[in-house]
Design brief:
The protein has 364 residues and is an alpha/beta fold. The chain contains 15 helices and eleven strands.
Length: 364
């Protein structure tokens, strides 16, 4: 689907990954325009890879490759799909190293593709299904509307804002919350280890979903208690109960973070602020400020957009936020201003081994 630019004769990589045309950049030569056209057309076809990835995840094809390579006809019989169509999907996935084809025409999972299985630790299958769900996919195709109208494309397509749609569509809500948990699981232990939590006190995981991050924080810090704060229908799926090592150290609290949040020594907001516009974030962070105990801290765990134009996942997520929600990914300066408006002061930004950073704030 997409050639490796480094394999193209005479191609040179720029900071953003696009090849420079032969000769001086922007020299206006016919050959330069030809190269530019080929590159842009190649890039425009890029949406077909996540489409193929979604199709493979949807039918669970990776689970049928757990025991070794299989022919497309076998896989089609096992998944109830068309053999020719499945072969073509697998062929595209092979160009990105998700599967590989042997000399007998059989496909096998690569190390890169293992997490597409649903039965492995840190399975990405439900995260892939969430990120390519129609609630994300369709608004992305209407990104021009965001530019011309200055608003999310979601409401025009679905008739209501993103989270209101959840309240009326159980299928969408289930896809989102299960997918977010799958997206978060590989990050949580790394984030919990990257920050020096206090020895004692209460950590409030604001809109903490199913509790994956709070669980890892409590596991690593036996002197801490935890509060998992979210809507009732989300808390119904939490995973804190079976964890014996945190027994008796956690509770759940139902509520709306735009109205109030429970008191605590550390308030954690992971992948929350990027869902909302600045004014709504200031309201939320202001509630955290008022609920913060003396010497407490607010931890905004989110992607921080780095300066420059080098590739970074936050820049893609930023367009998803623009298309489907009302939020955005933010720079360090953006976070500092939000926190200032909420009566907080940014004290430091700690990178983690994930795409997320810990933006630490204290009372101003």
């Amino acid at each position: 689907m997409r050639q490796d630019d480094g394999d193209r004769p005479g191609a040179e990589q720029t900071e953003g990954g696009a090849p420079e045309a032969g000769g001086a950049a922007g020299d206006g030569s016919e050959d330069g325009f030809r190269r530019s056209a080929a590159h842009l057309i190649d890039e425009a076809l890029g949406f077909l890879f996540p489409a193929a990835l979604r199709a493979a995840a949807d039918i669970g094809v990776a689970d049928h490759l757990a025991d070794g390579p299989r022919a497309p006809a076998e896989l089609a019989a096992a998944t109830g799909t068309d053999a020719d169509g499945l072969h073509r999907v697998l062929r595209l996935l092979a160009t990105r190293g998700v599967v590989r084809e042997d000399d007998r025409g059989r496909f096998a999972l690569t190390e890169t593709g293992q997490a597409l299985r649903g039965d492995v630790p840190y399975s990405a299958r439900t995260a892939v299904l969430m990120l390519t769900d129609r609630t994300m996919w369709r608004p992305a195709g209407e990104l021009t509307r965001c530019l011309t109208d200055g608003t999310s494309a979601f409401e025009a397509l679905f008739g209501m804002p993103f989270f209101d749609h959840f309240a009326q569509d159980e299928r969408t809500a289930a896809v989102f919350h299960v997918g977010m948990a799958a997206m978060s699981d590989p990050e949580n232990a790394l984030i919990a280890a990257a920050y020096d939590f206090p020895k004692a006190g209460t950590v409030v995981d604001v809109a903490g979903g199913h509790g994956g991050l709070l669980l890892e924080v409590l596991r690593r810090n036996p002197g801490l208690d935890g509060v998992l704060f979210d809507r009732a229908h989300v808390l119904a799926g939490h995973r804190l109960g079976p964890a014996a090592e945190v027994a008796g150290r956690w509770t759940t609290v139902e509520g709306d973070f735009f109205e109030a949040v429970p008191p605590g020594d550390v308030h954690v907001l992971k992948r929350i602020t990027h869902d909302w516009d600045d004014d709504r974030c200031v309201t939320l962070l202001g509630h955290c400020r008022r609920a913060l105990r003396p010497d407490g801290r607010v931890l905004v765990v989110d992607a921080v957009v780095p300066p420059g134009n080098a590739p970074h996942q936050s820049k893609a997520l930023d367009l998803m936020m623009m298309a489907s929600l009302a939020g955005r990914e933010r720079t360090e300066e953006d976070f500092a201003e939000l926190l200032r408006r909420a009566g907080l002061r940014l004290s430091r930004v700690l990178p983690t081994p994930t795409v997320l950073s810990v933006v630490e704030a204290v009372a101003a």
